[in-house]
């Protein structure tokens, strides 16, 4: 048998990822805690031997399944009497007389959540040989280089792919390399844009447009030589590209602009990109315009748009609003004035009905002003005096001045309350967008 025992560190790392999961493994109460890693290792060996020798699976795939199905494996192990000296043989005997549902192990091994597997199991089938289409498709993907335990991502998104002829899948995957991409790049594209593997006629133009963009970005602008040659690196790059398409940026027309701004895909984590996108989407402007803003002004990704404090009137003046306009804002929206965290700026602008005005300032090149409009504690007196001058010259100066004095007296209380309400609105909108 060709099973190679893992090192202590690799086995510990593998088990830690699963035992620390929010989904708890079946309790191995029959096995003393000090023996559990060894028991799992022996169970993996026995299962690999069973799938390879008894069920005639190629060894490499039998090993993939046994190493990546710890929940299913632990469930079976909990039913087997444990003894350090006999557990391996006991587990083998259990498999001979108690056939397992091989589809459960297979689906977990490719990355399907253990507690969701029942929704994927074929009815009245127990052995992989009873429905070999899914398994053969997995063989084709794995043979090309796809990580076995990430095939579930493909299966979830485009389940019909796994009913295709393995030779057809291999031809399609190798055909993508004709664009000048390496195998690892094709894998990243396939995992992030799985519909390209489906081959549906109605998606032909969309797929062609996507590869036009990717060809320009990866080949013409040489991104291929700037990314590490591993699957995870290419998945991250492709996920960042997908952010712009999800915003509505048109496929087939973004390749050159993305290529000129390839630093976005090389230097910034996906989380930073998504956070900035969400910030500007909260302005309720066209989402595709948000994507274009980030591509046209990538330095925005360096801005702190979370915790910095801003003065509403100070920011409006900073962005070019004149005294007359500021006076009008003070009269109409006195309850919005004051200091806020930068993260609440989109909701402040919407409350002032200035979201389009503000966003157009961003698009026109005034985005850099966001870095210089922050108000510190030492600027509070100036902020107050500026507001006072504007209000005193307004038609409702006495009434509004009383409000201003009240607001300043309760400066921190009001700032906290408004920020909390706006932050609650932020959380609600983020939740709504995700749904």
Order of strands across the main sheet = 1-2
Which class of secondary structure composition applies to the elements?
mainly alpha
Identify the overall geometry. elongated
Task: Kindly report how far apart the N and C termini lie.
Answer: 49 Å
As a whole number of angstroms, the C-alpha radius of gyration is: 29 Å
Number of discrete helical segments:
23
Largest sheet: 2 strands, antiparallel
Total discrete domains: 3
Order of helices and strands: HHHHHHHHHHHHHHHHEHHEHHHHH
Q: How would you name the oligomeric state of the polypeptide chains in this document?
A: single chain
Based on DSSP secondary structure assignment, what is the total number of beta strands? 2
Could you report the average pLDDT, rounded to the nearest whole number? 85
| Helix percent band | 55-70%
What fraction of residues sit in β-strands? under 5%
Poorly predicted ranges: 1-22, 376-381, 397-401, 403-416, 418-435
InterPro entries: MTERF, MTERF_sf
GO biological process, one term: DNA-templated transcription termination
GO molecular function: nucleic acid binding
Keywords: Transcription, Transcription regulation, Transcription termination, Transit peptide
Structural summary, described in words:
By secondary structure, this protein is mainly alpha-helical. It has 3 domains: 123 residues, no CATH class; 134 residues, no CATH class; 132 residues, no CATH class. The protein is 59% helix and 1% strand. The protein has 23 helices and 2 strands. It has a two-stranded antiparallel ribbon. Helix 3 crosses helix 6 and helix 7 runs parallel beside helix 9. The radius of gyration is 29 Å and the shape is elongated. The two termini are 49 Å apart. The N terminus and C terminus are likely disordered.
């Amino acid at each position: 048998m060709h099973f190679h025992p893992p090192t202590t560190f690799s086995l510990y790392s593998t088990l830690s990822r699963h035992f620390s999961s929010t989904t708890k493994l079946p309790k191995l109460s029959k096995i003393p805690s000090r023996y559990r890693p060894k028991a799992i290792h022996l169970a993996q060996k026995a299962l690999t031997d069973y799938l390879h020798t008894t069920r005639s699976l190629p060894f490499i795939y039998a090993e993939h399944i046994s190493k990546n199905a710890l929940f299913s494996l632990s469930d079976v192990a909990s039913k087997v009497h444990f003894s350090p000296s006999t557990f391996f043989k006991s587990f083998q005997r259990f498999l001979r007389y108690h056939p397992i549902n091989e589809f459960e192990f297979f689906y977990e091994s490719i990355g399907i959540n253990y507690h969701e597997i029942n929704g994927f199991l074929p009815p009245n089938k127990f052995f992989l040989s009873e429905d070999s289409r899914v398994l053969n498709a997995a063989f084709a993907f794995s043979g090309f280089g796809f990580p076995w335990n990430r095939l579930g991502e493909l299966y979830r998104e485009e389940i019909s792919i796994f009913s295709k002829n393995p030779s057809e899948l291999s031809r399609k995957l190798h055909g993508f390399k004709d664009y000048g991409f390496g195998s690892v790049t094709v894998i990243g594209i396939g995992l992030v844009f799985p519909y390209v593997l489906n081959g549906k006629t109605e998606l032909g133009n969309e797929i062609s447009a996507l590869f036009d963009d990717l060809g320009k970005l990866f080949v013409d602008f040489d991104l291929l030589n700037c990314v590490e040659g591993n699957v995870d690196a290419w998945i991250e790059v492709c996920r960042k590209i997908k952010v712009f398409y999800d915003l509505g940026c048109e496929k087939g027309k973004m390749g050159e602009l993305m290529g000129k701004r390839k630093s976005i895909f090389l230097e910034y984590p996906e989380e930073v990109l998504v956070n900035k996108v969400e910030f500007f989407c909260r302005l309720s402007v066209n989402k595709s315009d948000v994507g274009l803003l980030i591509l046209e002004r990538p330095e925005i990704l360096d801005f702190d748009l979370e915790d910095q404090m801003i003065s509403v009137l100070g920011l409006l003046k900073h962005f070019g609003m004149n005294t007359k306009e500021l006076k009008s804002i003070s009269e109409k929206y006195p309850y919005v004035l004051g200091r806020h965290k930068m993260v609440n700026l989109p909701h402040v602008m919407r409350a002032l009905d200035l979201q389009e005005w503000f966003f157009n300032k961003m698009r026109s090149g005034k985005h850099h002003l966001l870095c210089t409009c922050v108000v510190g504690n030492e600027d509070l007196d100036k902020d107050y005096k500026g507001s006072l001058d504007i209000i005193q010259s307004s038609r409702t100066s006495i009434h509004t001045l009383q409000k201003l004095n009240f607001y300043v007296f309760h400066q921190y209380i009001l700032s906290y309350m408004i920020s909390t309400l706006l932050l609650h609105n932020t959380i609600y909108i983020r939740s709504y967008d995700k749904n």
